[in-house]
Amino acid sequence: MRLGDTVAAIATAPGVGAVSMIRVSGPEAITVTAQALRCKSGLESKPERYATLAKVLGADGNVIDEVLATVFVGPRSFTGENVVELACHGGVLVTRRVLERLLECGARSADPGEFSHRAFENGKLDLTQAEAIMDLISAQTDMALRAAHEQLQGKLGDQSEALRENLLGVVAHVEAYIDFPDEDIDPDTGAAMLKRVSDVREGIKRMLSTAEQGRILREGVRTVICGEPNVGKSTLLNALLNEEKAIVSDIAGTTRDAIEDELIIDGVAFRFIDTAGIRETEDIVENIGIKKAYEKAENAQLIIYLIDSNKFSHSSELFLEEIETINKRFPNKRLLVIANKIDTLSCHDSSILQSEIENLILLSAKQKTGIDELKSELTSLVNTGALSNNETIVTNSRHFEALNSALTAINSVQQGIDLDISTDLFSIDIRECLRHLGNITGEYDVDKDILGHIFGNFCIGK
Fold it and tell me: Where are the alpha helices (DSSP H) in 105-190?
């Protein structure tokens, strides 16, 4: 990626549409584009940020397309460089021909993420904002969209930079005290320094506390549907999705492999996984499916365990014992036990179960009764506090790792203050914390390999 070149790329998604957009950026963007265009009085003389009707001409003088050209003079552009955007007709062939003509006139084909990379290098975006562009494009729920917008506005970067500025004041004071012992500088190692360090530490912890919500936004809630064979797991998946996704049969052991699909409930994406029935069996293939069921459950954030309500309809005590056994089978897991097939119970038996077992959800996946209550219970089990309270969410694993490392370093600083060790010994930890906080926005010595990884995940044209 040679950032001094003039580059061009199609900036809209592949396929046929009414309009496609081609972006050209770099020091020669206006000159290069002008060579390919014919418009009244020339592109170079057109006012900035005004759309100009022009024709794109091939090397032979024939018209390739009629376009609207808009000029953005650096640094007042997305990339901070001279930029020309061409809105052309949205056919695959015509768009490609326009791009090929720009490349003939001296532009280079842009690498994936190169426009955003240039915006970062030219101070138009910090790294959190650049990453938010991809989050915005890939958002599938309103909550994810809102979080991406907030990050694009720089809220996450502002928070991390505020912590960094606070810590810079600490390290500046400490190192001035060390380097200039004759200047009678207050060592500030008592309550005042402890307060400033504690404020930074609590700020980092607050940001880290939103990481679970961030994972929900990016990946959804992995929800495994478990239970014995023929309790209605596949029927429940179909009822939740409102489509025949999984094969349903009265024959026990029909489901051999995990079946997955996604559903958005109240703005939260749930990734439902239907698994093989759990039982003892001699069938080699079924045993593989059962092993997969346990593996899926181990990696799940939420487990729905179905019980055939007929099995314990006459004894709530046996039902409670079964629930206790299930909880022991999946320790330290968020577990929701549900009694299915209530359509086969008498009203008397179902009312006994509901009255004697607290918070028990009764449903009939076959008749789709109780599905709304199940959906409500699912969303209540997911911690969406930070999402609902409009807090800035840490959605990116890179940010999480940087904050975690920063917390480790600041904990060492606080321990040094508590033990009353010499300030020059823990000033290294302060610098380490500063480095990790700076890496979030790219303000502090971000490794080029990291930049390549971040922008390499973008599509071409972004």
Answer: 114-121, 127-138, 142-152, 155-179
